[in-house]
Amino acid sequence: MELGNQRSSSNVEDRRGIGMVGGGIGIGGIAVAVVAYLLGFDPGTAIQVGQQVSTHQESRPAAKGAPADEMGQFVSKVLGSTEDVWSAVFKRSGAQYRAPTLVLYEGQVRSACGMGQAAMGPFYCPNDEKLYIDLAFFRDLQARFRAPGDFAQAYVIAHEVAHHVQNLTGQFRKMEAARGGSAAQRNQVSVRMELQADCYAGVWGHYAGTMKQLDDGDLAEALNAASAIGDDRLQKQTQGRVVPESFTHGSSEQRVRWFKRGMESGQPRACDTFSAATL
Ligand SMILES: [Zn+2]
Fold first, then answer.
1. What was the pLDDT predicted at 237?
2. Does residue 122 have a cis bond before it (omega within 30 degrees)?
3. Helix (H) or strand (E) holding 115
4. Strands 63-64 and 101-105: what pairing?
5. How far is the CA of 162 from the centre of ligand 1 (A)?
6. Residue 22 C-alpha to ligand 1 middle, in angstroms?
7. What's the whole-number mean pLDDT along residues 180-196?
8. Per 3-state DSSP, what percentage of the chain is helix, strand, and coil (rounded to 5)?
9. In the prediction, which pLDDT does 1 show?
């Protein structure tokens, strides 16, 4: 990626190296796991029931603004790029974009949706409008999912930002509405939500391309990442078999296809997975 001319976003909270104090297993463990499930934490495999919650406090306040280190700068510039793109897209339809905050953390983190753990992968919490990214996931992308490259990492951030866009546009409420349904119905809604987020990440990629922020090979990196973190691929890696009813993000092929749709069109309305007859 070419982010040299991109401004860094200051909507970053650096909670790396901030320890947690306190302890005990909160009674909210299972409830948090359910919330995590409904929100479609990424990648959807590693949600653990019975996490420690609620009694932890962070030992000192987080640093605000773009961090100075290379990884922190990269993340802040990608976030800045998503802010520029989505502000313009919202403006065109007469709306105003409210930017989310990106929280960098290590190990575990307190969010308004409960405790987050690195094992869950990156996630978005609509209650505090923050995206939580553990940089260890980027190392995982490379080592475990074999999806290296800076644009692969940017894609992950753009996907979480896309969940924030869904929150602003009211799409997120569909998850809430599905809560009373069967597990299969909830998974269906979750898959549509996730594929729409992939498509929105593609919309960002479209404009990042027109802003000359992409290099040759970046698209291939993003598609490789989208494909590597498809539910079928993840399930095969973690369980050795594929159970489509339990997909919460969509298959590798679907994730790639919806990302491409956003990338090629640059149009959020091309991302209506909820009206699509086939995904
Ligand atoms: Zn997602």
1. 65
2. no
3. strand 114-117
4. unpaired
5. 8
6. 30
7. 86
8. 50, 10, 40
9. 85
> How far does residue 39's CA lie from ligand 1's centre (Å)?
8
Q: How far is the CA of 239 from the centre of ligand 1 (A)?
A: 20
Q: Which amino acid is at 11?
A: N
Determine contact, residues 200/268, Cβ cutoff 8 Å.
yes
Residue 39: closest CA among 182, 200, 186: 186
Give 20 or 2, the one with higher predicted confidence. Answer: 2
Ligand 1 midpoint to CA 197 (Å): 6
Checking if the pLDDT of 29 tops 60, the result is no
Eight-class DSSP state of 270:
G
Mean pLDDT of the chain: 79
* Percent share of the chain, pLDDT over 70: 75
Separation of CA 81 and ligand 1 centre (Å): 19
Long-range own/partner contacts, residues 227-231 (CB < 8 A, 24 or more apart): 227/147, 227/252, 227/253, 227/255, 227/256, 228/141, 228/145, 228/146, 228/147, 228/252, 229/42, 229/43, 229/141, 229/145, 229/147, 229/255, 230/254, 230/255, 230/256, 231/43, 231/44, 231/45
**Do the Cβ atoms of 111 and 38 come closer than 8 Å?**
no
- The CB density around residue 55, as the number of other CB atoms within 10 Å, is 15
pLDDT band for 48, please (50, 70, 90 cuts).
very low
Determine the Cα–Cα distance for residues 279 and 195; give it in Å rounded to an integer.
8
pLDDT score, position 43: 35
